[in-house]
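[User] Could I get a sequence and structure tokens?

[Assistant]
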Amino acid sequence: MLKKLTIEFSRNLYHIGIGLFDFAFRIYAAFSSKTAKILTGRKHQKVDLQHMFKTDERPVLFHCASVGEFEQAVPVIQWMIQKHSRPFLVSFYSSSGYEYAARLFPDWKRCYLPADRISDVRDFLETIKPRCVFIIKYEFWLNFLFEIQKRNIPSILISGIFRPEQIFFRPYGGLFRKALLGFNHLFVQDQRSVDLLRKLGAHSVSLAGDTRLDRVLALSQAPFENEILEQFINAQPLFVAGSVWPQDVEVLQSILAHLPKNFKVLIVPHEPNHFDASWILEPWVKYSTFTNQGERVMILDQMGMLSRLYRFAHFAYVGGGFGRGLHNTLEPVIYRIPVIIGPSYQKFQEAVYFVEQGIAFSVNGPEKIEEILRKCLDSGDERKAIFSKIDHFIQSGTNVMAKMEVFLNGYLQVKSEDK
């Protein structure tokens, strides 16, 4: 009885919190173009959703928070297209994920997930009537999950990852535990996540790995040519700094200062339109205005190319590790190159592994850059050892879809059918 009352109290608090969050979200939209795009997208998409599918055509829904989660969803979607030809819809929380998907797969149907108010969620589910729902990694909107479960719509978590400090494992996390245990199956990235979930009482849990590895491996094997970059690099070694934030600048200044002069430098800002390049103390050029004047530094001012550009690099820096959230380290590592990152990487399983194995090097500031550069620039036994470790990682971590295929076949062929 007490447990039931506690969960009910938590649910009421959650409803209040969502209402306050939505109110603040709308105010913030006046100052943020990204937030405004989400609100505008939600407002105008209902009519589109009503006509997006035939009356009896219940889509499979894939929900992604943003770009990273979409990359994890892509291998599952492509597998489903190939094996089952099911109609599907990809929903997003962020405008950056929505726009990224539009650039890469313009024919894929997409939308914004509504605010997590019960009325909005019910309206959304009644409109699209999903056959089953895939949640990618960690988008746990409670009203959305409870409404899915109430309708007996199968829900599957893909590439989940869990840590003891998360609310599910706290004494006050009963409502979140209830939502989590309502999933039909949970595919997770590591054994720790399996153990934590089983302690909660979850039995439909499988260790499958991270679908992003399948995705980045496929991208690395796809042909890619770029005449502008080839002219800029001019057969010289290249250093790539990807997804750069202002907090990364101090370390990058030190890297540029100690980097051999024969190296070319490609800097890829996380926000190209708001990037301050005044700290670069040598001639540089933008990708969009490149005229091959011999500059050593180029700033990439176009989106959607980074994952394919690491193939040209001798080593890389991945931004976001100084507080904004580390970006994708799999993308450069798949090309068998060492990587430098900031100090905040503990929440990213692959980054922890890379640091432990000496594939990636974490820095707190510019103090140890010379020492780390020597390791990154090594062309002898140390670099061969890095190659070997990366090859082992790829061989043991890919083919994630094969590990999930049998289970997913069941839901897409039988359990998700209309009765």
Remarks:
- The domain at 20-211+399-415 is CATH 3.40.50.11720 (Rossmann fold).
- The first strand starts at residue 60 and ends at 64.
